[in-house]
């Protein structure tokens, strides 16, 4: 019995081996490098200058006064990411529910349709949105053709948010859908049976049971959208420099240590945010009343 | 007694398949009524019609004389104990039971008191703060019952509530449900495919097959006076043979003429004859009304189950006397052990034990537990 147990743990150990090697090589080591670069100067001597620079660098703001460059960029990144995440949640939640209640065949078709944009290259998708949103683009030509007048979207925050929502919506829908598809339909019937009108069923049963999906979806959208770049450059016409763009810019300019410092601060902030979120949702989901 | 629910000429089909075929049924206040039948007979659909989860294609559902076809489930004074319970996994025992009261904005102290009362009734005092997922099947069952009763419904619907429990627990729960029904005075509509369960619990049994009601009656009625071969076969064990009614109180089957207690058939009318296995006496061959050869003997604990070949037709006999395989025996059947039924569409389908095996029965039982 014990020999057998030992062997099976050895087997699982061996089977897990490659993944552990993978995790160490491609996750832990690079993270270590990011931290190492963030806290060293060009001669690899320990310094906190890069971190300090992030919080103190100033530049001239829109109204002529001095502003803290990277804090402004951070605030803008967070704001756009949070708006995009909320829009994704508002759009994705009902859709995920509708899909999860459709016939098996319809579910498959709808999920495929949602995945298809993900098969296309990220750059191409972004360029596609440029041609749609431009002042002389598809959308404006359509509106003009209908006699509704043109709108200026490209180069605004709205354009950046549209691009981010389009890119990240599937990451919101997938975890929501997978939780909702597993939800026992009988629980919904039970709630109706026990006196809940449809709104009550949503509030008292469907929402609390889908909370883990909401947490996962928000995580999957918030994290990539807070560190996104390129979308802002192309759809925002370079007007909305985000953290991701800052990291890319510093990296391209060969300022590896400062780029690493920005990435490190972002990572720590995100981890803290996720920890807080999980703490509250877990309490909310399983603590009872 | 007052009618509390009336089903009038209800027809329901799913994807072109008729599930309920012109069903009419009256349910009386304060009774324990059981819908009994094999899987696919329409019993669960009937329950869902009363609960409000399905609407009939034609016909009416009446609740205390009022048509409720289009009333949604949350506005019906009817609660359901679902198959596999459907407890809310995100709420603890107390909150599961309090669920319907919170929806009605019942004052906090009253909720506390009524939930405690219900939990005491189902013997779950002290379990208030336990997670429902940590409970055993029997305990979850009790929570489901408490949750369905706490709102004081006029009618409680129970959809195979005991199917997932093991035999011993099932027997206990049968008794307990019966007691709860008596104590609360709420009408129970119970769905099961288990005929023993139906016989031991019900005031009224509704036997269903293929979307139609075959017979409505007390346990004794459906056991002793089955209306057709289906009911005779489904409720308990039966030998069902072709016979001819020679005159009132005289029937001929298996090559012998028997005195019986039934009458009112046409002269020489072909009939189905039911003889329960426990009503056949084994005697020495020369003294028997019928003669046959024993083909198998199974020890069942209380009795032996003996299969006897009589002129090519296999009879089942339950006896406490031991006989051996290949033994030639005689059988005696008393007049009141013979039940005569009119021929029906089910004639000839049931009642021969040629292909009988216990294993086969269990297989089909397991299948019907998966019924929606």
Residues in helix, % of chain A: over 70%
Mean pLDDT of chain B: 89
Strand order of the largest sheet of chain B: 6-7-8-3-9-10
Total tally of structural domains of chain A: 1
Uncertain residue segments of chain B: 358-372
Regarding quaternary structure, what we see is heterodimer
The greatest interface between two protein chains, and residues involved on each side, is: A-B, 21 and 29 residues
> What proportion of the residues of chain B is helical, as a percent range?
25-40%
Strand content of chain A is under 5%
Question: What does this protein look like?
Answer:
The complex is a heterodimer of chains A (289) and B (372). By secondary structure, chain A is mainly alpha-helical. Chain A has a single domain, classed as MetI-like fold, CATH 1.10.3720. Helix content of chain A is 78%, strand content 2%. Chain A contains 12 helices and 2 strands, in the order ααββαααααααααα. The two termini of chain A are 45 Å apart. Chain B has a 6-stranded mixed β-sheet with strand order 6-7-8-3-9-10, sandwiched between helices. In chain B, strands 13-12-11-14-20 form a 5-stranded antiparallel β-sheet. Chain B is α+β, with helices and mostly antiparallel strands and 372 residues long. Chain B is elongated. The longest helix of chain B has 18 residues. In chain B, α2 packs parallel to α4. At the A-B interface, α8 and α9 of A face β6 and α2 of B.
Summary tags:
heterodimer, A: 289 residues, mainly alpha, MetI-like fold, two-stranded antiparallel sheet, 12 helices, 2 strands, 2% strand, globular, B: 372 residues, alpha+beta, OB fold (Dihydrolipoamide Acetyltransferase, E2P), 6-stranded mixed sheet, 5-stranded antiparallel sheet
């Amino acid at each position: 019995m014990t020999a057998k147990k030992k062997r099976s743990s050895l087997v699982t150990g061996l089977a897990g081996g490659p993944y552990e090697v993978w995790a160490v090589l491609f996750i832990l080591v690079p993270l270590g490098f990011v931290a190492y670069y963030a806290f060293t100067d060009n001669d690899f001597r320990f310094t906190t200058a890069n971190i300090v620079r992030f919080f103190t660098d100033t530049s001239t703001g829109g109204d002529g006064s001095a502003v803290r460059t990277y804090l402004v960029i951070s605030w803008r990144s967070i704001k756009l990411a949070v708006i995009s995440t909320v829009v994704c949640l508002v759009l994705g939640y009902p859709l995920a529910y509708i899909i999860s209640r459709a016939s098996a065949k319809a579910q498959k078709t709808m999920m495929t349709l949602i995945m298809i944009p993900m098969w296309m290259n990220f750059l191409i998708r972004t360029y596609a949105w440029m041609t749609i949103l431009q002042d002389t683009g598809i959308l404006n030509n359509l509106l003009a053709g209908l006699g509704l007048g043109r709108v200026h979207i490209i180069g605004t925050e709205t354009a950046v948010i549209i691009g981010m929502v389009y890119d990240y919506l599937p990451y919101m829908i997938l975890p929501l859908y997978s939780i909702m598809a597993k939800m026992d339909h009988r629980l919904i019937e039970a709630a109706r049976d026990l006196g809940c009108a449809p709104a009550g069923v949503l509030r008292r049963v469907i929402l609390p049971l889908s909370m883990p999906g909401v947490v996962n979806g928000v995580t999957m959208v918030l994290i990539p959208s807070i560190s996104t770049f390129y979308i802002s450059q192309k759809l925002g016409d370079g007007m909305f420099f985000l953290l991701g763009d800052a990291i890319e810019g510093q990296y391209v300019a060969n300022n590896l240590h400062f780029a690493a410092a920005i990435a490190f601060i972002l990572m720590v902030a995100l981890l803290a945010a996720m920890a807080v979120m999980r703490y509250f949702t877990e309490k909310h989901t399983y603590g009872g009343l | 007694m007052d009618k509390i629910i009336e089903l009038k000429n209800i027809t329901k089909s799913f994807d072109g398949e008729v599930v309920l075929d012109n069903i009419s049924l009256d349910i009386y206040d304060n009774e324990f009524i059981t819908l009994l039948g094999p899987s696919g007979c329409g019993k669960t659909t009937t329950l869902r019609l009363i609960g409000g989860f399905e609407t009939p294609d034609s016909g009416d559902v009446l609740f205390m004389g009022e048509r409720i076809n289009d009333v949604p489930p949350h506005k019906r004074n009817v609660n359901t104990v679902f198959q596999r319970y459907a407890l809310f996994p995100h709420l603890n025992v107390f909150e599961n039971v309090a669920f319907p009261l919170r929806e009605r904005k019942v004052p906090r102290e009253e909720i506390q008191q009524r939930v405690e009362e219900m939990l005491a009734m189902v013997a779950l005092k002290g379990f208030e703060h336990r997670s429902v997922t940590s409970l055993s099947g029997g305990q979850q069952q009790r929570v489901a019952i408490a949750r369905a009763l706490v709102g004081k419904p006029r009618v409680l619907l129970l959809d195979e509530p005991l199917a997932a429990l093991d035999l011993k627990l099932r027997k206990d729960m049968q008794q307990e449900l019966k007691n709860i029904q008596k104590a609360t005075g709420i009408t129970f509509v119970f769905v099961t495919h288990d005929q023993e369960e139906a016989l031991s619990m019900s005031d009224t049994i509704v036997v269903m097959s293929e979307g139609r009601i075959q017979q409505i009656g007390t346990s004794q009625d459906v056991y002793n006076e089955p209306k057709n071969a289906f009911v005779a076969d489904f409720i308990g064990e039966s030998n069902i043979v072709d016979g001819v009614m020679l005159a009132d109180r005289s029937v001929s089957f298996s090559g012998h003429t028997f005195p019986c207690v039934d009458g009112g058939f046409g002269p020489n009318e072909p009939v189905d004859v039911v003889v329960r296995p426990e009503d056949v006496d084994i005697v020495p061959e020369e003294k028997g009304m019928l003669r046959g050869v024993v083909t198998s003997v199974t020890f069942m604990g209380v009795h032996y189950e003996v299969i006897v070949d009589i002129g090519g037709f296999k009879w089942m006999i339950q006896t406490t006397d031991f006989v051996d395989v290949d033994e030639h025996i005689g059988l005696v059947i008393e007049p009141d052990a013979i039940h005569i039924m009119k021929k029906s569409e089910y004639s000839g389908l049931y009642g021969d034990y040629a292909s009988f095996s216990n294993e086969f029965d269990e297989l089909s039982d397991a299948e019907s537990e998966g019924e929606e």
